[in-house]
Amino acid sequence: MASSSHESVPPSSGHSSQPPDSVPPSSRRSYLPPPPPKALDVQLERMFGFLIQLGQFGRMTGQAVMSLFSRPFEFKATVYQMQALGVRSLGIASVVSLFTGLVMATQFAYGLQKFGGMEYTGRIVGLSFARELAPALTALVVGGRIGSGITAELGSMAVTEQIDAIRALGADPIKKLVLPRLLASTMVMPILAAFALVLGFAGAMFITSIEFGLPSGFFLQTALESVRFSDYFSGMFKTPFFGAIIALVGCHFGMRTRGGTEGVGNATTRSVVAISIAILVSDFVLTKVSMLIWPAGSA
Hints:
This protein is 73% helix and 0% strand. It is built from ten helices and no strands.
């Protein structure tokens, strides 16, 4: 009689989308897979997610600005971040600015030589570097390095719950982590851009003298005649904003990292992309503002 006590149990099929035979046909529609989301719903979800991210970013920015006026002042942490974000970025800033100057001078001198206007190379290179290339290109290249480092560092702290431990100890993570990086990045970007301007112009002056026989003194004189203080200030005016964007975007993605090491990698990638787009968009806006403050032809 032992054999009659066993009942045949159908094998478990996991999460099968096929209904069993015992289910009446009227109830089988509940076993159908859900329809795929519509394209409009996907776009709306992405838009809402972007607005949420924008609100969180604005809130963190406001908290960072307000923490600037509260004690204690993170002086040592700010100096350390200036060394980590600024001094260690001199190498990549030097290489990028030097070879950009070499390429620009070679291209312009070669093109102007056909029309007998090679003496205008210094003017064009000087204006291009002073107004746009030195600040924007330095912010793009150095911003990728700084932003990825900030996101990876804070993201590792977030997934290991170190940021939660800072809150548990009664400290403010915005004050301890975000503000020093914000101040350091804002202060070092003008210095890096000025350094890139000098080095890039020196590279352009060197290559035109060696390859095209244009005297270095003449190159420098023509450039200084065309580049005014307004051109220099209109370029340097943008660099503190670029530095603030780099630090804030990097901190935003870093402090909201989830998902372990894979999440850190995804947050770092998103941070670099967002920083690059934000710098290009803000560069256009700040260029229009600088043109209003320092119109063309002003000293």
